[in-house]
Each structure stands twice: as structure tokens, then as C-alpha cells.
Design brief:
elongated, alpha+beta, 3 strands, 4 helices, 16% strand
């Protein structure tokens, strides 16, 4: 059976070898999952870009070289960190409004843990990318 799409690991390995980037340890267990890695040619303008698609994300990364990748990926990570911070604020507001009302404390705890872990992993990737500039 032929594989239609590369795996997250295959995409990382190709990205790493093309642009001499090493951030596998930081990427492990992070909320970022690569879905596809393409080279796209604009036939009219006759230019080429790389494009990375993410699983369960609407955003894509479009870049021409290593520097553009690093800058675009850092911007993408900043957006994701802001989304986690907004989710954390919503959770805090929910807990304040719910005083005296029964809710699933375990679910809220798990969401807090996921937010904290996600932000920590994104910060690690961001710091690693900053060091690669």
C-alpha cells in the first residue's frame, strides 16, 4: 500500500536535513504536529515556496529559505501561545463564575495541565529556534 502523506517524523527529518535545523527534542510531545511538507511553484510568477501544513490547524507556513522558516515558525508559535493564554483566561473566568455550581473539576484540571504543557513545549521550540537564527 502506498503512503499518500508523509508522517510527522518524516516531515521533521526532511526539514532538518534541508535547512540544518535540529529541534526534535523540543518538538516531541508538543501541540505541533506536521501534516504535510510541500514545494509549491507559482506558475504565473514563476517562483517557488515551501509550505508546511499542520494537523488540526488552519494556518500554514510558507517560506523560501531557512531564515524565513525560522521567522515564520516563531510567529506561528507566538500565535499558538496566545491561543493557549486566551484558553487559560477563559478557564479562569469559568471557574470564577462557577463558584457554588457543580462542574467536572477533573476536566478543568486536565485542561489546565494541557495548557501548561503546551505553553512549556512551545516556549522550548521558540527558544531553540531563536538560538538557531
Amino acid at each position: 500500500m502506498t503512503q499518500n502523506k508523509p508522517s510527522h517524523e518524516d516531515i521533521y527529518e526532511k526539514l532538518s536535513s534541508l535547512f540544518n535545523l535540529k529541534f526534535k527534542a523540543q518538538l516531541k510531545d508538543s501541540p505541533i504536529v506536521f501534516d504535510n511538507f510541500l514545494q509549491v511553484k507559482n506558475v504565473v510568477l514563476e517562483n517557488e515556496n515551501y509550505v508546511i501544513l499542520f494537523k488540526s490547524e488552519k494556518e500554514i507556513l510558507k517560506f523560501k529559505n531557512r531564515e524565513e522558516f525560522i521567522n515564520s515558525f516563531i510567529s506561528f508559535i507566538d500565535i499558538k501561545i496566545n491561543e493557549f493564554n486566551e484558553e487559560f483566561e477563559e478557564l479562569q473566568n469559568f471557574e470564577r463564575r462557577s463558584m457554588g455550581i457543580k462542574y467536572d473539576e477533573n476536566e478543568v484540571y486536565v485542561r489546565h495541565e494541557n495548557i501548561g504543557h503546551g505553553i512549556m513545549k512551545l516556549d522550548q521550540i521558540r527558544n531553540k529556534l531563536l538560538s538557531l537564527r
